[in-house]
Design goal:
homodimer, alpha/beta, L-arginine/glycine Amidinotransferase, Chain A, four-stranded mixed β-sheet, 12 helices, 24% helix, disordered C terminus
């Protein structure tokens, strides 16, 4: 693995869209007792369901600690690889590399700086040194060269690419005080263009209410194809989310993408607000002397936090009447893919959802699933 | 990765010889402070030299702890993969899987039981749980199925295969009280045949004097081609090794291999006895209240502990007049390979040598170096 200090854009590399073909997906086994309630038992089951759903149409690598290997190996289907790696928690989207690809189909990983969503300013845990080493080590594991972008703090959940030069972000996250406070918006925009090989950055003002990542874009808005997005939506004017979603819609209606297209916005309804229950709070270890979550705390539940696998969309469910509505909308928007809905409350409690716990690896020249054969191992699951 | 409880022989799998073509080699980064003197600094340098020499003609994967990743990555050539894995020490030969191969070129790994060369009877450290998980985890990493042979205690250094049905072992090791005391010699022999796909086991009586592995075969005798071995030798009748090597020679002269061939024995002279020096002992942490090694302790130095890479033989050197003699003998015996000699005192202090810190992965159907192209990355090193 070469550690590169050049810029992907100058090298002819750009970030593919998630709906483009994957080699596979990386996930991280849940373990941290202040994130995952009751010894992470329920979270493990939910992660297994997500991994198995993704593994129907692409490879899955599950990273886990030394201590958890045997349990992970036992609980996961054979065709999912379990690989030891030290991490601080289970947010593969945010700690794994963002992969970029060139015209010959070669891929490289970007090793962003990671500071637990805000560092000493408003980060969510300390320390985060293990997480911050995951991206580079995963590139080494996959025998891919890696761009050293550690000076720039960014998480995979804060960017979405359409694969045609346009990248979606939120101002609330990328301009937060805990990430790159010394860089101006323009400087951050240039970094994004240079690393993601993008031409245009679309800056949504905000994300989902109380989303503790400073409102990652991947919880509020996602590309479903170039020029088209889904936007998390509520018609309840009393919900603080109403104004936030409306502001995003207003912004998107005024924008064109890198190709000059107007953005088509599909509203994806939110579930009714989801709150922490007393007994869930009791299942979590305290963090630095404080309860991690409190009874009645609203969680940032959103259907937008889905993962697009090669032949499926893996969608969170909240035992809400909109579960079915969201599923139908996505079935229409992803005609070639099965929408697999997984009850995600046990993931949500940890602070994110299905998109947050996954990171795609684009298919690459010479990969053993380029012809779509070995990618399909395990259809039985 | 499937965990198999069948027997390789019944499945059509057998252990190739080390001189057959490799996909690559696994090593483990040295760290343990009661094995490697003075913070393992000199050991790391020696391991890097060995890895780089092997990487001239095949892939190398270096396993290392979370803590050592950055140092290993910095010290090793780019084209060597560094992969996190927890271990108890650095003896890849003994803790990594033994790979077996079928007629279609597929490979599987055998996950032997590992108890630190003798468990509570006369094992060399405690605990050994991390080491005992390496084989299975490495198979998972390589996406190879694994045979569960954990009930049978065996190390890779205690077997040598000629790839044509004959396996070399030592009685001193395989019949030791700390390994499989409930099994008879005949039962152990059947296990070896079943797992290694062998027809005939050749039982040398012993190995190298004071070899703390209960005299692994890989320090005294190795196949250089089917029907031909090198045997560690001394003509010094006062050296306790004299009788031991002579007993092995006498045994071999009476034997034929699985194909009915008489065994051709090439004597490989030993270096003059190598002893621990006072300052080396001072560089080692104590183990369980005792010095790990004592001044004047004789180390089991032997030129037989070489590694056969695709285009090289990586041979230990001891700054002894026989360094050059051994090199010349091996150059003659391995005409298609360069003999690369590496000063190995800093490895020897740890208790083994170049063969002990390496484990080959045979080339397999579909591997990206089957055509010998990518295997040759890094000829510059």
């Amino acid at each position: 693995m070469k550690i590169l200090t050049t810029l992907p854009k100058n090298d002819g590399y750009a970030m593919p869209a998630e709906f483009e073909k994957h080699y596979g997906c990386v996930m991280i086994w849940p373990e941290r007792a202040d994130s995952w309630a009751f010894g992470a038992v329920a979270a493990r089951r939910a992660f297994v369901q997500v991994a198995a759903a993704i593994a129907r149409s692409e490879k899955v690598i599950m990273l886990c600690s030394f201590e958890q290997y045997d349990t992970a190996r036992e609980m996961l289907p054979d065709h999912i690889r379990v690989v030891e790696m030290s991490t601080d928690d289970s947010w593969a989207r945010d700690v794994c590399p963002t992969f970029v690809k060139n015209a010959s189909g070669q891929i490289r990983g970007i090793d962003w700086g990671f500071n637990a969503w805000g560092g000493l300013e408003d980060g969510l845990y300390f320390p985060w040194d293990k997480d911050n080493k995951v991206a580079r080590k995963l590139c080494d594991l996959l025998e891919k060269d890696t761009y050293d972008a550690r000076e720039f703090i960014l998480e995979g959940g804060s960017i979405h690419s359409d694969g045609e030069g346009t990248v979606l972000v939120t101002e609330s996250c990328l301009l937060s005080a805990g990430r790159n406070p010394k860089l101006s918006k323009e400087e951050i925009q240039e970094k994004l263009k240079d690393y993601l090989g993008a031409e245009k950055i679309l800056w949504l003002p905000c994300g989902i209410y109380l989303d503790e990542t400073n409102e990652h874009v991947d919880n509020i808005c996602a590309f479903v194809k170039p020029g088209e997005v889904v936007l998390a939506w509520t018609d309840d004017t009393k919900d603080p989310q109403y104004k936030m979603s409306k502001a995003c819609l207003a912004y998107l209606e005024q924008q064109t993408d890198a190709k000059g297209r107007k953005i088509v916005v599909h509203k994806l309804p939110l579930p009714k607000p989801v709150y922490m229950q007393e007994e869930e709070c009791e299942g979590l270890l305290h963090f630095q002397g404080e309860p991690t979550r409190r009874e009645g705390e609203r969680l940032a539940a959103s259907y937008v936090n889905f993962y697009i696998a090669n032949k499926a969309v893996v969608l969170p469910g909240f035992q809400d009447e909109n579960d079915e509505v969201a599923k139908k909308i996505l079935e229409k928007l992803f005609p070639g893919r099965e929408v697999i809905q997984i009850d995600a409350r046990d993931i949500l409690i940890g602070g994110g959802n299905i998109h947050c716990i996954t990171q795609q690896i684009p298919v690459f020249a010479g990969s053993d699933c380029e012809d779509n054969r070995t990618c399909e191992i395990g259809n039985g699951w």
